[in-house]
Amino acid sequence: xxxxxxxxxxxxxxxxxxxxxxxxxxxxxxxxxxxxTAVKADIPDGLTxxxxxxxxxxxxLVPSTSLFSSPFDETIDIAAETERAKxxxxxxxxxGLDRTMVSSVAVPARMDRPAxxxxxxxxxxxxxxxxxxxxxxxxxxEGLRPLHHSHVGGVFETETEITAxxxxxxxxxxxxxxxxxxxxxAGVDPAAFLSRYADRVGALHLKDVFADFLDGRAxxxxxxxxxxxxxxxxxxxxxxxxxxxxxxxxxxxxDGDFMIEVxxxxxxxxxxxxxxxxxxxxxxxxxxx
Length: 289
Description:
This protein is α/β, with parallel strands linked by helices.
């Protein structure tokens, strides 16, 4: 994998409509016209990796780091998750990728009360760490470097839980694929976190957050209510995150892509949101005025 590209996750297109070829065709056409050259690697059902690569090439795009997601808790069958991880890894390796993010999502109590570690259970956390370790071993055996991706709503939500996972499994088993927006939403300073784990960073999602729901100001708003309000997620540079500090915290030999991911546009349209994000990335990484 050649790093350093300005990549994008077309989540604004598929989050509600699904990762269908029709939906992604529009996304790729619009994102390519803006200037993006790499997209999160999600192969739609019915396409082989080879067909997916050819389809992307038609837009001048290449695949970038994807995400294996699981609750990792007592709700899963670890044997079934292992087989799913093997299939996922085979596809990603066939795309020429050498790493993947790994994330935990959708603990019900945390979707109701996000970013505060709701309904904490030590036994659940210990089981999730154990299960995540199993999956990381599988991904490594199949040729992918696993990188933990922070995500509000999952069992690894708070800083204490994330560090328990990373410190418990160790540097040889799991790296870091941080999400600046999800970290800050959960009260974690992204720059300080990246500094702590600088030797393990292999991927990065760049999104900003507005201050409206941070630091105990969310009240009773659920995950979906906050995320859908257009006052949580922000295009990079429009919110409160200090991206100069974030980028300064990266190791000098960082070889991952810089992936823009703004789950919900703060702007009237998806295109405008991605234009703002790409212009910021050009200024930041390419020195464009």
